[in-house]
Amino acid sequence: MTISFKEMLHSLRQPVPLLIDTDNAMGAPVADVDDGVALAAALASPEVEVVAVCGCAGNCSAAFSARNSRKLLHVCGRDEIPVGVGQEYPLCREHRNRDGHHAFLARHAQGAGRELWPEFLDSPELAALADRVHDVSGTTGDSPIAMPDALVDASPTVFPDAAETIIRAARKAAGELVVLSLGSLTNLAAALRKAPEVARHIRMVIHMGGQFLPWKPGQMRAEFATPDIPESVWDKALRFNTWYDPEASAQVFSSGIPVVVVPVNVTSHGFLRPGHVELLGKVGSKRLDWLVQQVRPWVTWSEQVRGLPGAHMHDPMALALLCRPDLFQLQPMQVDVPALLREAPVFLGPVPHEETLDREATTCCPIHSAVQVSASGFEQWLVQRLAAF
After folding, report:
1. Nearest-10 Cα torsion for 62, 64, 65, 66
2. Cβ(292)–Cβ(277) under 8 Å?
3. Strand ranges across the sheet with 202-208
4. Do residues 68 and 36 lie in contact, with contact meaning Cβ atoms separated by under 8 Å?
5. What share of the chain is helix, strand, coil (3-state, %, to 5)?
6. CB-based contact 55:63 (threshold 8 Å)
7. What is the structure's pLDDT at 282?
8. How far apart are the first and last CA of the chain?
9. Do 386 and 288 meet the contact criterion of CB atoms below 8 Å apart?
10. Is there a contact between 178 and 204 (Cβ–Cβ < 8 Å)?
């Protein structure tokens, strides 16, 4: 019998031991800031205790994400939180990377983004990155492109392996660990391959990713506009989160660990708006002033270039599900694994009626998915949490 998300949530230890696996590109020019905002909000949330952070590939390289997350932790005075770095490529599709996407962003930073990110205007590292890939195929046959070292403070620290970081955190939490997966599932799948028994030490995975086609009233539709990204880049270079490493995603979904998905159907309705940024800028906290400096250009870009009311806050919404579940409606769904492996745009769907379910033939995995959210309630919660950062 499948238990409900609310039953799982009520059974969690308080505060919840939380490991955040993220492709945190906050601070890089023309890059999403929602991963960094989610980490900042988690550090300000009394419902959770951040016990570790891992960097995965996606919005940026895994190495950049790890260094960027360490910088944010340092600003918060939380250097004791371990940070692990994952591999730069998917587990089975080693030809795939985000080189084309990263080079595309670098070219944007030297073009339309020049006024919003002036500190990178004359960056030789950024120029080299922009020139390195001349198409958007997503492959170079060379080592993965990392965002320039100039974008973060150089650190002599050698980061531990992300899979090992997950294994240690899960064992230490003794069955209570929640993994907040904000990027690809590569690191978690690598941990499960290295130590299969770790699955029983993880209470739950909350994953931001995926999309479903609404089939009943009250279920939200995805509303996502990126006019600044050509279709050729979407088709050839972009594979976000669940889609970046389909085999890793399938392994996590079939591991037996309870998984709750927060898809773009709901996350595309939550924003950090210019008015929110102005309000946060008046709080008078040095840490918050630093955070505002990181997020303001992306909020402006989202409004002026994408025509949105603010910056999408996909990843903080996944955190909000853990901290404010009353804002959400969830529903049991299933993951169509073959559809996921062939990179279908939609792999989430309704659970068949019991009488029509062929248990011998099924290749689907049960999950829970958010289907509706109070967007205004989420935005209010997020601003309140960031104000306490």
Report:
1. 90
2. yes
3. 83-85, 48-55, 16-22, 177-181, 202-208, 259-262, 364-373, 328-336, 348-350
4. yes
5. 45, 15, 40
6. yes
7. 96
8. 40
9. yes
10. yes
d(CA 145, CA 143): 6
Look up residue 142 and give its two tokens. 């060379």
Residues in contact with 367: Cβ distance below 8 Å, sequence separation at least 6, in sequence order? 253, 259, 260, 261, 332, 333, 334, 335, 348
To the nearest 10 degrees (0 to 180), the angle between helices 34-43 and 375-387 is: 60
Torsion on CA atoms 271, 272, 274, 276, rounded to nearest 10:
120
Which pLDDT score is estimated for 240?
A: 74
Percent of the chain at pLDDT exceeding 90? 62
Q: Contact 148/64 with Cβ under 8 angstroms?
A: no
Tens of pLDDT, residue by residue over 87-136, are 888 888 665 555 665 565 666 555 666 678 776 555 555 444 444 444 43
CA separation, residue 383 to residues 278, 312, 320 (Å): 11, 14, 12
For residue 173, which amino acid is it?
Answer: A
**Given the structure tokens 């795939």, which residue do they identify?**
96
Strand pairing partners for 332?
Answer: 368
Least confident of 30-39, 140-149, 280-289, 355-364: 140-149
Q: Is the pLDDT of residue 80 over 60?
A: yes
Q: What pTM value is reported for the model?
A: 0.88
Q: Which two tokens stand for residue 276?
A: 């929110």
DSSP secondary structure string for all residues of 35-83: HHHHHHHHHT-TTEEEEEEEE-SSSS-HHHHHHHHHHHHHHTT-TTS-E
Count of alpha carbons within 13 angstroms of residue 84, beta-carbon side: 24
Please give the structure tokens belonging to residue 347. 């792999």
Phi, psi of 271 (to 5 degrees): -135, 155
Q: Are 349 and 336 in contact (CB under 8 A)?
A: yes
